[in-house]
């Protein structure tokens, strides 16, 4: 969205016209020195200024104050009539106290400037007596222009004494979107300003005033009303007669009207040229009265989330319309109908159309080509389909085109090369396909080119870049493009941001990048680079703040002076990088070198106090975790898993608000980390495959945000603390492969959290990765411990459980009868326990089940069947139940009687006795036939005999060498011991 820039531009234009038109212009005085008393007043004002970083008052010295910067004197009288001390700022929405503005107090000495007509202290960090608005300004009766915009340090009530300034024509106080602490509960004083043409009190709380339209209606001279962000409650008051016949600009944006747009009073203001209703929760359709506003040039109704906001048919007279902003609503009509409803007489005068962030559907009509004066076309974040019509090439004045986040398809028309004034082109996140037209290379004014997340293919050559001399930002990522340029090519541009992820740039490093020394953001991840980092790389990109080279086959080392570079985010994962890890850059926030071959130890002196994410998993990093890690107070995500780390964990982590702590697959040896007791932000904890020991503390139940706990394959002992059931967000619990005893805690039904992260889960006999939105509890693995007692019944209430593994324990009793309530269960392993009784028939209700293991228990009765149970382990389904001598029925060989017990009688003996005999006879016959065919082949084919015995000789030699080497190694170790 660019409505903010549009509003700023219009405000500047309006203010300029006011300055050059109706606003009084104080002439300069050239008759000699200024009046001494007024010079003294200015110097007193200067004494109240404690900081002047921009040097606005640097010239305030000497006798002739009329020559001082910002001071204007009358040619006739020599009196100071103008004081302009506005701090220049490219962004009027920036907090003045964060810039180069004046800092200090507005002095009473200004009262000595009795002839002052124009006072502009805007965009400074000034405050009044005791922090309040300076009431004494109400005594400066000659003031015609007062601009205190952006003085956010003023607090308290806006003084009604401003109503004494009867000559006032321009009044601007407060600032929309600021942290203003000013308010007014009565604005009747405004009605005394009978000459007032411009009133702007944005950001001042007027929530207690309900009759504000009536108050403003009593000032017929008003041309500009700006009440943005004033917490106004309603605009649907009825005005019997509208006096504001000169009103040209009305800004009521960012209030809380929350009513029908059609009932507002301002539809009678037919003189309006500018109407801003942004962010007011206005609902319903426009009234027919909109068609009477024939002077309207700018209409902004963005960010109302009004899906019924459609243009009426009575718009044929709005021929002056230049800017139309409907962005950030929920409009779901056809885009062709919407555009066809625009006034035909304005088709050639419209300059900006913003329909972004809606739900428009349909295809972009070729009619768009008739809007020949368009400067900006914003259609992003809709549901538009089809191809871009060639008529788009008629918009030769277009400077910005944004079609991103739709469902456009087909190729980009070559006519896009006719948009010679285009500076920004965004076609990202669509379904565009085919080649990128080389005509784009003719857009010499283009500064930003974003084509990411499409289906573009083909080759990008030098022709595509030939005329892009002003290009600053390029994003071709997530396509199937190949960047192919000569090795000695010199680009015509100086990039600041270059994103090429998933484009093919390799195998060698693109040499042309060495000339792009102004880049601050570079992404060449997944670009098929198979090369060593060139010598010029780190010096060329020493000022880069964002670098992503992950998922390539890049080799080499990190520079020793990495800490002197400007990196804030550095992604180097999944490459072939080696060597030691240098000290981190001082401003780094994300450091990812995972899945490489870095060695050595972690840097002993970690000074990166801004670091939030540190990912180093799957390397060869050894040694211990240094104490200096505790300096990383901002650290939220730490993954050091799959390395060679040993020793304990520094306990000084106590003050770190860590969310992800992943240390699995190392040789760390310690008790459960006590510093986690304060880890109220902890969500993921993975200590698996280490040498941790001792008990799991009861205070683990206080870590209420925990969602993932994996402590498997350590030597934890004791019992499972019942407090763990208080972790209502917990979705993954893996305590397998420890020495934990006792019973499974009750109240597992409390574990009902929701989570959407990527989880690694051992289920179905293998390791899987689950992604997407996972509702409720996902996995419980308590296998390989010494748990006893029964399986708690309320475990069956976890109806979104996917994996349940309780194998290799000492559990007894019956399987819960409601096991079939686990409707989402895909993997169930209860093997190698002491479970008894029958398998519940409800097991057949598990329609998602794909892995089942009940082996080696003391189960009895008939094996349930039906649904998924009949398809499991098709090769040998009996293995699921092996080791349970009391079970019978398919898929087991034991038959059951009518009551489910094993049958030993002779029912159907003729058939059943014959079946084993037939089976064994067929088995012997097949074996003899197979052996005879092989024997005959060897007998009559000499080459097969030779190959066969050579294979045996080679296999014998390999086994012999292997045994001898292993035996020698074993005896050597024995001798050394």
UniProtKB/TrEMBL annotation:
Q: Where is the Leucine-rich repeat-containing N-terminal plant-type domain?
A: 37-74
| UniProt subcellular location | Cell membrane
**Domain (Disease resistance R13L4/SHOC-2-like LRR) ranges:** 366-525
Q: Which GO terms describe its cellular component?
A: plasma membrane
Signal sequence annotation: 1-17
The family database entries (SUPFAM superfamilies) matched by this protein are listed as: L domain-like (SSF52058), RNI-like (SSF52047)
Q: Which Gene3D superfamilies match?
A: Ribonuclease Inhibitor
Q: How does it sit in the membrane?
A: Single-pass type I membrane protein
Entries under SMART domains matching the protein: LRR_SD22 (SM00365), LRR_TYP (SM00369)
UniProt family annotation: Belongs to the RLP family.
Q: What is this protein called?
A: Leucine-rich repeat-containing N-terminal plant-type domain-containing protein
């Amino acid at each position: 969205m660019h409505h903010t820039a549009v509003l700023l531009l219009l405000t500047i234009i309006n203010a300029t016209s006011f300055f050059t038109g109706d606003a009084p212009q104080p002439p300069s005085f050239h008759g000699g020195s200024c009046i001494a008393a007024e010079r003294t007043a200015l110097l007193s004002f200067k004494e109240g200024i404690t900081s002047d970083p921009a040097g606005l008052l640097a010239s305030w010295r000497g006798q002739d104050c009329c020559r001082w910067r910002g001071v204007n004197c009358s040619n006739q009288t020599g009196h100071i009539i103008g004081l302009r001390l506005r701090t220049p700022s490219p962004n009027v929405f920036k907090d003045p106290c964060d810039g180069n503005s004046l800092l200090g107090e507005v002095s009473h000495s200004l009262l000595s400037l009795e002839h002052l007509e124009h006072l502009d202290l805007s965009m400074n960090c000034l405050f009044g007596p005791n922090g309040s608005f300076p009431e004494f300004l109400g005594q400066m009766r000659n003031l015609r222009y007062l601009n205190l915009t952006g003085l956010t340090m003023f607090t308290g009530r806006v003084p009604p004494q401003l109503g004494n300034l009867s000559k006032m024509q321009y009044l601007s106080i407060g600032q929309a979107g600021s942290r203003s602490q000013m308010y007014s509960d009565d604005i009747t004083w405004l009605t005394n300003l009978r000459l007032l043409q411009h009133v702007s009190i944005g950001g001042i709380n007027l929530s207690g005033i309900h009759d504000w339209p009536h108050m403003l209606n009593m000032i017929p001279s008003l041309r500009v009303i700006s009440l943005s962000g004033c917490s106004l409650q309603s605009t649907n008051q009825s005005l019997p007669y509208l006096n504001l016949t000169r009103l040209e600009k009305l800004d009521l944006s960012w209030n809380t009207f929350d009513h029908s747009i059609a009932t507002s009073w301002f539809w009678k203001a037919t003189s309006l040229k500018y109407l801003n209703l942004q962010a007011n929760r206005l609902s319903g359709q426009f009234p027919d009265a909109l068609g009477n506003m024939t002077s309207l040039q700018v209409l902004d109704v963005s960010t109302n989330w009004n899906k019924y906001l459609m243009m009426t048919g009575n718009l044929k007279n709005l021929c002056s319309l230049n800017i139309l902003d409907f962005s950030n609503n929920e409009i779901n009509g056809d885009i062709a109908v919407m555009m066809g409803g625009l006034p035909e007489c304005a088709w050639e005068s419209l300059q900006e159309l913003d329909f972004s962030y809606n739900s428009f559907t349909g295809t972009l009509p070729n009619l768009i080509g008739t809007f020949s004066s368009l400067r900006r076309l914003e259609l992003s974040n809709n549901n538009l389909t089809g191809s871009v019509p060639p008529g788009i090439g008629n918009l030769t004045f277009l400077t910005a085109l944004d079609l991103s986040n739709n469902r456009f398809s087909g190729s980009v028309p070559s006519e896009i090369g006719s948009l010679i004034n285009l500076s920004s082109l965004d076609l990202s996140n669509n379904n565009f396909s085919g080649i990128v037209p080389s005509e784009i290379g003719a857009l010499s004014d283009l500064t930003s080119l974003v084509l990411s997340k499409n289906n573009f293919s083909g080759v990008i050559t030098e022709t595509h870049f030939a005329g892009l001399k002003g290009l600053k930002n390029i994003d071709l990522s997530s396509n199937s493009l190949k960047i192919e340029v000569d090795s000695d090519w010199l680009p015509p541009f100086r990039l600041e941001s270059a994103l090429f992820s998933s484009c093919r740039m390799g195998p060698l490093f693109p040499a042309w990048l060495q000339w792009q020394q102004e880049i601050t953001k570079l992404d060449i991840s997944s670009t098929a680079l198979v090369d060593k980092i060139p010598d010029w790389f780190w010096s060329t990109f020493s000022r880069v703040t964002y670098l992503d080279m992950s998922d390539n086959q890049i080799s080499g080392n990190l520079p020793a002076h990495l800490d002197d570079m400007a990196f804030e985010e550095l992604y180097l994962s999944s490459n072939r990088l080696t060597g030691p890890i240098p000290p981190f850059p001082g401003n780094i926030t994300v450091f990812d070198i995972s899945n490489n071959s870095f060695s050595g130890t972690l840097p002993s002196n970690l000074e990166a106090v801004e670091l939030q994410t540190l990912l180093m998993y799957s390397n060869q990093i050894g040694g211990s975790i240094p104490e200096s890690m505790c300096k990383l107070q901002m650290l939220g995500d730490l993954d050091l898993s799959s390395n060679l780390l040993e020793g304990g964990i520094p306990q000084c982590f106590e003050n770190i608000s860590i969310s992800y702590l992943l240390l699995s697959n190392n040789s760390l040896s310690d008790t459960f980390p006590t510093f986690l007791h304060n880890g109220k932000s902890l969500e993921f904890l993975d200590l698996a495959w280490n040498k941790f020991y001792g008990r799991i503390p009861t205070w683990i139940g206080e870590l209420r945000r925990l969602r993932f706990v994996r402590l498997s394959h350590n030597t934890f002992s004791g019992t499972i603390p019942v407090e763990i059931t208080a972790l209502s967000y917990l979705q993954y619990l893996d305590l397998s492969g420890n020495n934990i005893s006792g019973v499974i805690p009750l109240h597992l039904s409390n574990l009902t959290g929701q989570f959407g992260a990527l989880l690694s889960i051992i289920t179905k006999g293998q390791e899987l990765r689950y992604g997407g939105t996972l509702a409720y509890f996902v996995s419980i693995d308590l296998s390989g411990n010494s748990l006893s007692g029964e399986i708690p019944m309320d475990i069956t209430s976890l109806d979104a459980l996917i994996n349940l593994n309780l194998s290799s324990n000492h559990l007894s009793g019956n399987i819960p009868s409601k096991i079939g309530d686990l409707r989402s269960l895909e993997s169930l392993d209860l093997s190698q326990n002491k479970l008894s009784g029958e398998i519940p028939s409800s097991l057949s209700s598990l329609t998602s089940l794909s892995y089942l293991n009940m082996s080696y228990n003391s189960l009895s009765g008939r094996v349930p069947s039906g649904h998924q149970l009949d398809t499991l382990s098709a090769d040998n389904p009996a293995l699921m139940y092996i080791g349970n001598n009391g079970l019978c029925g398919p898929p087991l060989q034991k038959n059951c009687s009518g009551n489910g017990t094993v049958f030993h009688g002779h029912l159907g003996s003729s058939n059943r006795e014959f079946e084993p005999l037939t089976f064994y006879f067929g088995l012997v016959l097949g074996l003899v036939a197979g052996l005879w065919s092989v024997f005959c082949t060897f007998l009559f084919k000499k080459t097969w005999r030779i190959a066969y015995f050579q294979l045996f000789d080679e296999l014998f030699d390999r086994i012999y060498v292997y045994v001898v080497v292993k035996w020698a190694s074993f005896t050597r170790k024995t001798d050394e011991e």
